[in-house]
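Sequence in, structure out. Go.
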Amino acid sequence: MNMKRTRVRGITLIELLIALVIVGILASVAYPAWQSSIRKSRRADGHAALIAVQLAQEKLRSSCRFYAQNLGAGNACGANAAGSTIAAQAASPDGHYTITLSGASATGYTATATAVGDQVKDEAGGVTCTLAITVSAANPNGVRSPADCW
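Output:
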């Protein structure tokens, strides 16, 4: 009897498992880098919010003797900084940061963007990126910190 062997085409289970292991290793390396890149791109949301606050503060300051301490629906010049409000939101446009004002006076203030959600894991140069602009008489354009996050 003459038996011919026919070769079956396809992949073996071992080949399939090796391919899956390689894909898994590549994914475990690429995913954290991708997440870090996404967080870094979301910093623009915090930057935009702080720049909007800085512009609103300067607009109010042009007609008021001091900077505002509060965020709200419109500009309102009160008897002092604590009684004044600027037209700005307490959250960044995309919602990745909350915005707060502190230290408002006749000569300066600090605006801070604090990350929320997954954005709190954002770091640059080993520092967590809680964005801040501090405006003073000595630095009317504002000092941005931490520097690596800007």
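Check: Strands lie at 70-72, 85-87, 97-102, 109-115, 123-124, 127-128, 131-135, 143-145. The helical segments are 13-61.
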